[in-house]
Amino acid sequence: MKVQLTRRYRFSASHRLHSADLSAEENRRIYGKCNNPYGHGHNYALEVTVGGAVNSSTGMIANLVDLDEFVQREVVEPFDHRYLNEEVAAFQQTVPTTENLCREVFRRLRRFPEAHLERIRIEETGANSFEYAGDPGESQR
Amino acid sequence: MVYLTRKVEFSASHVYHNPEFSAEENRRVFGKCNNPHGHGHNYVLEVTVAGEPDARTGMIIDLQELKGLLQREILERMDHRFLNYEVPELKGRIPTTETVAMTIWGLLEPKIQRARLHRVRLYETPDLFVDCFGDGR
């Protein structure tokens, strides 16, 4: 039997979708309102799914206190109430779409030592959600 | 293959305590969940079965049968119970969400006839759930 545990977290952050590789006109056309120069924000919900063997003395895949502390430190603290474009190094060159946000969050969380990171899911709004489970052959960074 | 999911809710209490650990270790590993009087949750259980729809009925499973099975096997066993003491399958085990979900899988899987049990998803709170899948996933 395969068992996976999913925990849900929240953070609020602002971003602006703007690519330095595109002209001002193209940026406006492709990103629409999301290209507004001052940025805008979302209440993000993040689901983190880990899998692995259930420890027979604790009944757990991973201790939730440890998982919460790890996700808090790696993602919630550095992202919550921040302007992603300016305050998270990874987005100074990369457009902080939720697709790219998924990759960055996955990259940070895959180092969780107690269990295997299966996938993450980010809801940007109640209507848009994105999932990422890593890419085949991607190196463990 | 078509997947059908049925949702039921039950409320139950539990405590996390391993008699092989010292009192201090129990508190450290299980935190508030080690409070000796226990605490409770409103669990939400989603059971997903998979199969091909029957040519005559258009169904992969008779929903009434599935509803009855969940009532008999899960709700009557676990609803408004103290899981550690009142559910024989959980006696002597630590009823984490993982353990309860795996126990539910074990109770349902052999009793689902026409379709195949695909997934058991158990929410302990809206922010925490566990999925179980069979080996043939």
Structure write-up:
The complex is a heterodimer of chains A (141) and B (137). With 141 residues, chain A is an alpha+beta fold. In chain A, 28% of the residues lie in helices and 28% in strands. Chain A is elongated, with a radius of gyration of 17 Å. Chain B has helices spanning 23-30, 63-78, 83-86, 97-108; strands at 2-14, 39-51, 81-82, 116-125, 128-133. Chain B starts with a strand and ends with a strand.
Provide the descriptors you would attach to this structure in a database record.
A: 141 residues; alpha+beta; 4 helices; 5 strands; 28% strand; B: 137 residues; elongated
Termini separation of chain A comes to 29 Å
Q: pLDDT below 50 for ≥5 consecutive residues: which ranges of chain B?
A: none
Question: Strand arrangement, largest sheet of chain A?
Answer: 3-1-2-4-5
Major protein interface: A-B, 19 and 28 residues
Average residue pLDDT of chain B? 95
Rounded Rg of chain A? 17 Å
Helix-strand category of chain B? alpha+beta
Put simply, the count of helices of chain A is 4
Strand content of chain A: 25-35%
Give the proportion of residues in helices of chain B.
25-40%
- What overall form of chain B do the CA principal axes indicate? elongated
Oligomeric state of this protein: heterodimer
* Major sheet details of chain A: 5 strands, mixed
Q: In sequence order, what are the helices and strands of chain A, one letter per element?
A: EHEHEHHEE
Radius of gyration of chain B: 17 Å
Portion in beta strands of chain B: 25-35%
Lateral arrangement of strands in the main beta sheet of chain B: 3-1-2-4-5
- Helical segment count of chain B: 4
The secondary-structure element order of chain B is EHEHEHHEE
**What characteristic shape of chain A results from the CA principal axes?**
elongated
Tally the beta strands of chain B: 5
